[in-house]
Automatic annotation (TrEMBL):
Its main location: membrane. Keywords: Cell inner membrane, Cell membrane, Lipid A biosynthesis, Lipid biosynthesis, Lipid metabolism, Lipopolysaccharide biosynthesis, Membrane, Transmembrane, Transmembrane helix. GO terms for cellular component: plasma membrane. InterPro entries: EamA_dom, EmrE-like, Small_drug/metabolite_transptr. This is Cation/cationic drug transporter.
Length: 126
């Protein structure tokens, strides 16, 4: 039976949390910029708005740090155990988006979150 050390679990969880935070910050940043059409004429002006949006820059930093932590985690944990734990990002994002962004959290999403948590628990003990 493989057991995951506290350090390995912490690296994975921190990477997942940073990735989830990055997603939420990206959403917050795009809300500031607003909806935009993807066209050649928009590449420079919208690209500039996105690249100068502090929440999007922070999100990119979170992504970068999450990649570093993920690489450290993969050096310690089999990918067949580590990769399914990325599903926890959906759980964190769904709950945080409900709390922070006012997105819906209906019974179907709660059931899905429960299944994800059960699945991650089973895989992490394999």
């Amino acid at each position: 039976m493989n057991t995951m050390s506290l350090v390995s679990f912490t690296l994975i969880l921190a990477g997942v949390l940073l990735n989830a935070v990055a997603q939420l910050l990206m959403k917050a940043g795009t809300q500031v910029v607003g909806a935009f059409a993807f066209s050649a004429a928009n590449i420079v002006p919208i690209g500039w708005k996105l690249l100068t949006q502090p929440t999007i820059l922070t999100a990119l930093g979170c992504y970068g740090l999450s990649v570093v932590l993920w690489i450290l985690a993969l050096s310690r944990v089999p990918v067949s155990i580590a990769y399914p734990m990325l599903s926890l990002g959906y759980v964190v994002n769904a709950l945080a988006a409900w709390w922070w962004l006012g997105e819906s959290l209906n019974p179907t999403k709660i059931a899905g979150i429960s299944l994800i948590l059960i699945g991650v628990g089973v895989v992490s003990r394999a």
